[in-house]
Write a structure and sequence with these properties.
Distance between the termini: 78 Å
Structural class: alpha+beta
Helix content: 10-25%
Number of helices: 11
CATH class of the largest domain: Mainly Beta
Radius of gyration: 28 Å
Strand order of the largest sheet: 1-2-3-6-5-4
CATH topology of the largest domain: Thrombin, subunit H
Number of domains: 4
Strand content: 25-35%
CATH architecture of the largest domain: Beta Barrel
């Protein structure tokens, strides 16, 4: 008997081990899911506007990378709003390397979501929405996206927690996962083992603002994302509902204070004058315990339910007041002050069309002292790179302090002003790129500086 038990334990360890049959089955399953889902996930490359470093300084163009996923073969793409915020040019790079310019269809006013549209001239692979209401803590998931601009990547993990509140919106209901999510993954798909989208990868939590993934990633649930996307695609049909209350979670101590010990609900902290709740005589201190037949547990769940209620229909609200429950009907209205479509089109972004780009490179005259400092040929002429800003295209192109810009395709460079004049001329001619010849420690090479990517 004892030997049989030991044998059974050894067999179980073999099955569950890193290289055991069950582990191999899981790995094989992940590979099949990734192969099915990855063609519908895209890299989103944007040019964005960065405010000037100093008052009165130039606006900066910066490159940024994020992710998105196709939800309709016609070219409808879902991503995070922050991926395309302040963008004046958006390009989508598909799994096979093809590229297409994208239009921003609409951005969500409160939830970090946006919808793009590309015209590829062919039906595109698309992902299906999964039911995020059915996901459980411990369920296996894959996060697919473009971390740090390295290219399309897949990470595996589980659902670590549900209904996370990071106080980003009144509706927070994030899925927490330990599948690696880094900068650039934003807007990508969190998929289940049926290759269905159960979440939109949105954020990572790290006490160090400059740090990377430490095992806590957050995704907007598919249920929320799907509702918002339907609204963005057809705002006249899917208006968000509103009754005009500010809600607060009912803590155990507050529950005792209102005589509702042990119950779940949400207490009204404020009522908007003239709103549906005010008209229905709801008041501060009332405790919502249910909407219709749904008993809800926190203020965010109530808010998510309210925004999905049909406009113009009565909402049956169960309220605890004066030591007893009563049902009050409030007519649902449209959410006021909704941001119009294209809300990320900013004055700064439009201004980029009016001025030549700032390269982010500080140029100084090349002197004998500079040649000696960087070990340059004493006969070399050009404009010396004194420094390069951290977040600019020139750094992406590998330009560093000590490099020398010696020529453009049009003419040799003798001074920093020669470079500035060449950039200005390329801008006035609406040229997309300017070729610069750079001499540095790694030798001589041509680089192409973006001038008018929107062209």
């Amino acid at each position: 008997m004892h030997r049989c038990l030991i044998a059974a334990v050894i067999a179980l360890i073999a099955l569950l081990g890193e290289n055991g049959p069950l582990a191999q089955m899981r790995q094989s399953g992940d590979a099949a899911v990734a192969a099915k889902a990855m063609p519908a996930v895209v890299n989103i490359a944007t040019w964005k506007v960065r405010p000037p470093a100093e008052a009165g300084g130039p606006l900066r163009r910066v490159k940024s990378n994020g992710s998105g996923f196709i939800v309709d073969p016609s070219g409808i793409i879902v991503t995070n709003r922050h991926v395309i915020d302040y963008a004046f040019h958006v390009k989508v790079i598909f799994h096979n390397g093809d590229e297409a310019n994208a239009n921003i269809v609409a951005v969500a006013p409160m939830i970090d979501l946006a919808v793009l549209k590309v015209s590829a001239g062919r039906p595109l692979p698309a992902l299906k929405w999964g039911d995020s209401r059915e996901v459980r803590i411990g369920d296996a998931v894959l996060a697919i996206g473009n971390p740090l601009g390295f290219g399309m990547s897949v990470s595996a993990g589980i659902i670590s927690a549900l209904n996370r509140d990071v106080q980003d919106t009144p509706f927070d209901n994030y899925i927490q996962t330990d599948a690696a999510i880094n900068r650039g993954n934003s807007g990508g798909a969190l998929v289940n083992l049926d290759a269905e989208v159960v979440g939109v990868n949105t954020a990572l939590i790290n006490p160090d603002d400059a740090g990377g993934f430490i095992g806590i990633g957050l995704a907007i649930p598919a249920e929320t994302a799907q509702f918002v996307v339907h609204y963005l695609l057809n705002p006249n049909k899917h208006q968000p509902g509103w009754i005009g209350v500010k809600l607060q979670d009912l803590t155990p101590d507050l529950a005792k204070a209102v005589g509702l010990s042990g119950a779940k609900g949400s207490i009204i902290a404020a009522v908007d004058p003239g709103g549906p709740a005010s008209v229905a005589s709801l008041r501060t201190g009332d405790v919502l315990t249910a909407i219709g037949q749904s008993r809800l547990t926190d203020s965010r769940a109530f808010m998510r339910t309210i925004v999905q209620l049909p406009i113009g229909e009565p909402a049956r609200l169960t309220v605890w007041r004066d030591g007893k429950e009563q049902v009050i009907s409030a007519t649902v209205a449209e959410w006021p002050h909704v941001m119009p479509e294209g809300g990320t089109a900013t004055t700064m972004a439009k201004a980029m069309d009016q001025e030549a780009p700032d390269s982010g490179v500080q140029l100084v005259p090349l002197t004998n002292a500079g040649r000696k400092q960087y070990g340059l040929d004493e006969k070399l002429t050009g404009a010396l790179v004194a420094s390069v800003e951290f977040n600019c295209e020139a750094r992406d192109l590998g330009i560093i302090g000590g490099d020398v810009i010696t020529a453009t395709l049009q003419a040799p460079v003798k001074t920093p002003d020669d470079v500035r004049r060449a950039i200005q001329a390329a801008h006035e001619q609406h040229r997309q790129f300017l070729a610069l010849l750079v001499q540095g420690q790694s030798g001589v090479r041509w680089v192409s500086l973006s001038i008018d990517p929107s062209s």
